[in-house]
Amino acid sequence: MTDIRPAQVSDLKAISALDARETGVAKPDYWREMLAPERHFLVAETESGALAGFIAGEIRAWEFGQPAAGWVFAIQIDPTLRLKGVGSELFEALVARFKAKGVTRVRTLVDRKDHLILSFFRAQGMVAGPSLQLDKNLS
Q1: How would you classify the pairing of strands 3-6 and 106-108?
Q2: What share of the chain is helix, strand, coil (3-state, %, to 5)?
Q3: H-run or E-run covering 72
Q4: Domain residue limits at 36
Q5: Per-residue model confidence as pLDDT tens digits over 60-69
Q6: Is residue 98 domain-resident?
Q7: Which of 52, 98, 128, 133 has the highest Cβ tally under 10 A?
Q8: Beta carbons within 10 angstroms of residue 116's beta carbon
Q9: Alpha-carbon distance 95 to 72, whole Å?
Q10: What is the CATH number of the domain that holds 84?
Q11: Does residue 132 lie within any of the structural domains?
């Protein structure tokens, strides 16, 4: 069991470092924006106080006629702590926040080739939703 709490400014360096290590892209400004009051940005800490992982999302309503839903924007777990339930704990904590606001659906977007994250969300009970992502290359 890890300690899950709202992310703070003092967490941003560790969050950005974990994300950059896993994605290869440093984006500290993006993570700073996740601290906005309308967002739900949670971190998990180990017993020693080290960052175990994070999850970020928000409630979005009425886009393209869809009722309010909780959206997961990002989740990242320290690779040495994967398969220990940290991701599931963070997901459930975010879902609890969404439910407390009256939301009955949770959604996310995943790259269909990213089998790791796709498997994680499927293990959380998520399935294909009612929307279809459309994409256009602008280059």
Answers
A1: unpaired
A2: 35, 25, 40
A3: strand 69-77
A4: 3-123
A5: 998 788 899 9
A6: yes
A7: 52
A8: 8
A9: 9
A10: 3.40.630.30
A11: no
Average pLDDT over residues 15-25: 96
Strands 69-77 and 106-108 come out as parallel
Do 42 and 22 form a contact (C-beta atoms < 8 A)?
A: no
Burial grade of 75 (CB within 10 A; 0-12, 13-18, 19 or more): buried
Q: Give me the number of domains the chain comprises.
A: 1
139 assigned to some structural domain? no
In a domain, 99, yes or no: yes
Contacts 24+ apart (CB under 8 A), 76-80: 76/15, 76/18, 76/19, 76/22, 77/44, 77/52, 77/53, 78/18, 78/50, 78/51, 78/52, 78/53, 79/22
- pTM, two decimals, is 0.94
